[in-house]
Structure formats: structure tokens, C-alpha cells
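If you are new to this repository, start here. Below is one unmodified record pulled from the training split, so you can see the exact layout before writing a loader.
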Amino acid sequence: MDFKMDREIRGRQKSCTEQILCCFNRGGCWRLAPSKLICNADGTVVRINLFFEATGFCMAGRGIIDTIPVELYTNGLDRSDAESYLQVKLPLVNTVRSPCCATTLAFALCPCFWCSFCRWVKGEILQWDSRLREWQNEFNDTVLVRKGYFVKTQSSSSVTYNNKGEKQRHIERWIAIALTPEESELLRSEPHLIGYTVDLSCCDGVNEFELCMHP
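And here is the target side for that same chain:
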């Protein structure tokens, strides 16, 4: 059973109206990520999922691309602390990643250096993964855990094929924040990566199974 279906069966989604609005805001109901706001049976928001951009086309990824909802602060979380980690420190993590246009151009111009290219990309991704882990560990240890919150990087990946039979990969990334001790325990038990994940270590690439978010 996949992650999204499991969440729906457990009745933890928002109202039908919000789900419809969320579909329009997030590019359609086929999205891989869970809803932005997750509620318990009483209708109380217990988790927030914020879309995350890891890389831009010709610039570094912007980090969180969702508006941070007011529900994040309802259990006593200090706004300045949260904004410091989510809006200032988190985008800095992405500065170690090359823009999509740069990596695509490098490979297009130098296909004979595929192995060297793979090692270069792998080094970037591993450095990015290390910084991402440091960010969430520091955020949890210094701000969130003492308030009963917990943050975790998550992502989901799937593969489709176009009418020419060409493989197309789709990845959505988000920052999951649990707002209660009970939800925090649940989030701790969930994986970082969901869906299609690959190990390219055989050709000097990265093993995605060892990462905390799909690259």
C-alpha cells in the first residue's frame, strides 16, 4: 500500500473542499505528495507538509515554495525560530547543488566524460544530503523536540512512459512537520523516501536508498 493511499484510509486528510483547492494549487490531483495539512479524527491539524524545491532550472533551488500556515504556531512554536530555520537556513542547503541547466549542458557537451560527470554529480548530492541531515537534526534538537514537534525530509518518486515509450521520472519533495508528540512518533517511524528509488553506485553514481530525500 502506498503512502498516499494509507493516509487517506486512515481518514487524516482535510475536508473535501480543501482537497479540491489543494489539487488546483499543487498541479492536479495526481500529485505524489500528501496534503499540506493533515488532521486527526477531531479535525485538529497534526502535521504540515511543505513543498520543497531542491534545484532550479538556472539557479539554486528556492527551498520551501509553500506559504507557511498559521497552524504551525498554534502549539507554542516561536515564529522567529521557525522562520529562521525554514526560510533562511534551509535555502542555504541548496547552494551546493548545481542548477539543472548547468548539469544538462555539461553532459550534452561532454558525453565522453560520463563517468567523471556521474562522480561529480554524486559528490554534489552527497554534500547536499549531509547538509540536509544537519539542518533537520539541528532544527529538531534546538527548537522542535522540546515543543513536542518533529521535522523530517520526505519525497516520493514515480515513473511513467510517454506515447513513444520514453521513461519519465516524477519527484515531489516536502518538509514534513509533526505538531504533536503522538504525530512526531508516527513521523519518526516513516521513511524519508517513498516510491521509485534507484541505486546507481555500480556506475559511480549515487545510491538513493542512503539519502534523506530523492535528489
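Two things worth knowing about this chain: Helices lie at 3-9, 16-25, 79-93, 100-109, 114-144, 181-189. The radius of gyration is 18 Å.
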